[in-house]
Specification:
Elements lengths: L11 E4 L3 E7 L9 E5 L15 E18 L2 E2 L1 E6 L2 E7 L5 E20 L19 E2 L3 E6 L2 E13 L2 E12 L6 E7 L2 E8 L4 E11 L13 E9 L2 E10 L4 E4 L2 E4 L2 E2 L2 E6 L12 H13 L4 E4 L6 H10 L2 E5 L7 H4 L4 H15 L6 E5 L9 H17 L5 E2 L1 E2 L14 E4 L10 H15 L7 E6 L17 H17 L5 E4 L5 E2 L12 E2 L13 H18 L1
Parallel strand pairs: 21-22, 21-29, 22-23, 23-24, 24-25, 26-27, 27-28, 28-29
Antiparallel strand pairs: 1-10, 2-3, 2-4, 4-8, 4-10, 5-9, 6-7, 6-8, 11-12, 12-15, 13-14, 13-16, 16-17, 18-19, 19-20, 30-31
Helix pairs in contact: 1-2, 4-5, 7-8
């Protein structure tokens, strides 16, 4: 399944994944041998490939002709795409989509090959050994689209309220392969139509922009996640020949003083961080596993999820849209030092994924904030320049959402003048013994007294402790479930009572694999701070978090 809803009525589209492909590893003892594997998948889930780091070729065949657009939703972590043996695309980054166009393919059977590569190298600034696993494979769906010489690349809808009335700024991007006859474009939303005059399009990209006004539409909110479709249609002589349908919600997010407002009401975030990771599927979770994670999250009483530390599968965002779960989504970069940020490829690669994230996930109403560069060198002047550039890219692409980054630099951070929201990752009573309430008050006081973050909304974007599932200790030893539950009780109680904190994200929903090359002293080569283990079995802290989130919700509703 490519999305959870229909995205075309006119354009012919079919999924090439959700079936068996040929997989051939290109390194190691099995190099050159071909295996039949189901896609999407990660090769670490194949027998004998649990620690494979290298290149692997996937191949499939299909019947088609004409102009073919091949859309890859995610290949881990770099990709080369070949059509009938000819290279047609290359892409860096596992967590955003890309496409390749084949013009005028002859009728008949064709071969598609995708070479994935999960190796680390100096040319890769973002995919480095880290506190999560860098998988390999076709990890998200691949689609085949048959297009004419003119087709719609995206439709963006930016809703806003003016004088109590919902309006929407609409932008449609059209790709024209060559100049042809006149075409017309229309966009239908909630029974209304925005029509653009018929015109002859020059070859290349063309953007159409307009504004629409709506009466009687319902606002999107966690309590009532009302969704609408925007259907853009290209016609020639009154006959449709291409279309694109996307979903959005009428909702408005802004900051005011120390509050984050959704449709004018203050948000109080009770959130959980989540990696795309599962012992059976790696990062290629099927839709049912994504839905199961969301069910756990909602049972905990959480109203938000943080996509640590990369853009998530769009189907997961679709589910968040549908269930009313707010999303902090961030670009791909975690814990990069100043030296790592000075990699000659860093700025290019980080800016690419930032652009792709914002462009591709623009319409999701659940995404209420953009995050960048988790725990990177925000305590340096060079780092500050990088943060400023990427925040500027986000602002140029999207002025409807606030921006932030998760810092761990305590009282040395230099970047709080850049975003609309100040955010910190803190682990009192796990990595140090300072009581959580005391630590938070001291840090928050410094932000208000000594930084440009004073007066802005403040979020705790990570808090937590490690616990090994099944390890029980009568004296609550470190790594026991008892110690984890005790620390989370004290941490969350302090944060949820803190009046000037707009919310908190627990690190993290489930235990995850970490890179063998990094592991950093993690027992089991896992990050074990999950509220549930990797198989989603609840630890003792599960009921603690659930109880405290319920109390926090009740406290918010009373105020």
């Amino acid at each position: 399944m490519i999305r959870t809803f229909q995205t075309h009525r006119v354009r012919r589209q079919e999924e090439l994944t959700d079936k068996l492909w040929d997989f051939t590893p290109l390194q190691g003892e099995s190099a050159g041998k071909t295996f039949s594997v189901f896609t999407p998948s990660c090769w670490e889930s194949y027998p004998g490939f649990g620690l494979y780091r290298g290149r692997g070729r996937y191949a499939t065949r299909f019947e088609a002709e004409g102009n073919l657009r091949i859309v890859c939703k995610g290949v881990s972590h770099t990709a080369e795409v070949y059509f009938d043996g000819e290279k047609i695309a290359a892409h860096y980054n596992a967590y955003t989509a890309f496409s390749a166009l084949v013009r005028g393919a002859a009728a008949g059977e064709h071969t598609l090959e995708i070479v994935a590569d999960n190796r680390f190298s100096p040319e890769s600034a973002l995919h480095v050994p880290n506190d999560y696993m860098s998988y390999g494979g076709i990890s998200r769906p691949v689609a085949l689209e048959r297009v004419e010489t003119c087709y719609i690349r995206y439709v963006h809808v930016a809703p806003f309220r003016r004088g109590g009335t919902w309006r929407a700024a609409v932008e449609v991007c059209v790709d024209n392969l060559c100049e042809g006859g006149p075409v017309s474009l229309s966009v239908r939303i909630a029974g209304k139509e925005l029509a653009f005059p018929e015109s002859v399009l020059p070859a290349g990209e063309r953007r159409f922009a307009g504004e629409m006004t709506f009466e009687g539409v319902r606002a999107w909110s966690p309590a009532e996640p009302a969704l609408y479709t925007a259907e853009a249609v290209l016609s020639r002589g009154g006959v449709p020949f291409d279309d694109l349908i996307d979903r959005f919600g009428f909702r408005e997010v802004r900051t005011e003083g120390k509050q984050i407002l959704l449709n004018g009401a203050p948000l109080r975030i009770r959130g959980v961080c989540r990696h795309e990771d599962h012992p059976q599927f790696g990062c290629a979770l099927p839709l049912s596993a994504m839905a199961a994670d969301l069910a756990l999250l909602r049972d905990l009483g959480a109203n938000s999820v943080r996509t640590a530390h990369y853009p998530n599968d769009e189907r997961f965002l679709d589910l968040c849209d549908e269930t009313g779960v707010l999303v902090w989504e961030e670009n791909h970069a975690r814990g990069l030092s100043l030296e790592q940020m000075q990699n000659p490829r860093f700025e290019e690669q980080a800016e690419q994924v930032t652009r792709e994230m914002a462009q591709q996930h623009f319409n999701h109403p659940s995404v209420y904030i953009w995050g960048i560069l988790n725990e990177c060198a925000s305590d340096s002047e060079y780092g500050k320049a990088c943060y400023e550039k990427q925040f500027s890219i986000l602002r140029a692409l999207d002025r409807t959402r606030p921006r932030s980054f998760a810092s761990c630099k305590f009282k040395t951070d230099r970047c709080f003048g850049l975003p609309e929201v100040v955010s910190y990752n803190i682990y009192p009573q796990w990595y140090h013994d300072t009581p959580a309430g005391e630590y938070l008050a001291d840090l928050y006081g410094w932000v208000q007294a000594a930084t440009e973050g004073a007066g802005k909304p403040f979020l705790v974007t990570e808090i937590g402790a490690g616990g090994l599932y099944g390890y029980r200790s009568p004296y609550a030893a470190k790594w026991s479930e008892e110690r984890q539950a005790k620390i989370l009780e004290e941490q969350l109680s302090a944060v949820l009572r803190f009046p000037d904190c707009a919310g908190v994200y627990v690190w993290q929903l489930c235990d995850i694999r970490v890179s063998e090359e990094w592991w950093g002293g993690r027992p089991r080569t896992m990050n074990n701070k999950g509220i549930v283990d990797e198989y989603r079995r609840p630890k003792l802290c599960y009921e603690v978090v659930k109880r405290l989130f319920a109390a926090g919700r009740a406290r918010t509703e009373r105020t």
